[in-house]
Amino acid sequence: MSKLFFTYKHNTEIGLSFSTPSLGIIMFRNTIVFVFVMIILTWCYKQVFDYDAYEGIPIAEGKFSITVPSPEALESVLRPFSDAYGFKLQVARTHPTDPHFLIMMWRPDSSILGVNPFGDFNFYIYPAKKNGISLKEANKLVSYLAHKLEQEMPNK
Hints:
Order of helices and strands: EEHEHEEEEH
CATH topology of the largest domain: Double Stranded RNA Binding Domain
Number of domains: 2
Number of helices: 3
Strand order of the largest sheet: 3-7-6-5-4
Helix content: 25-40%
Shape: elongated
Structural class: alpha+beta
Mean pLDDT: 77
Strand content: 25-35%
CATH class of the largest domain: Alpha Beta
């Protein structure tokens, strides 16, 4: 039990007593708050980034040998393709100095993932689980993407 005293005029002391919660109760309360916040954040994350919306196996893929000088150059080549076919585009480096990139393009019916871990670019098209892209359309997208990359980017 802790006591807190206040001194007023004429040296009159008024005391307040209160009990402080034990360390175990404080830790339990903080743990409950933390778990609750994590549940809310996880729910919000799933609402924004629903990765379960796409199949786990690609239905089409392409491999390209191109030289990419910078992420900006790669994005300038892929931006017209993504805009023409309704994809949102994100290009990022996977290593600060090596020319390795991760390319993500997505729209409601499909997702395209592009990586170059060992030099050549590999592009994979994943259909959505509901109302996904057809195999015929996915193969057309790969051929259009191949044409665009071979036309705009130099070969190795």
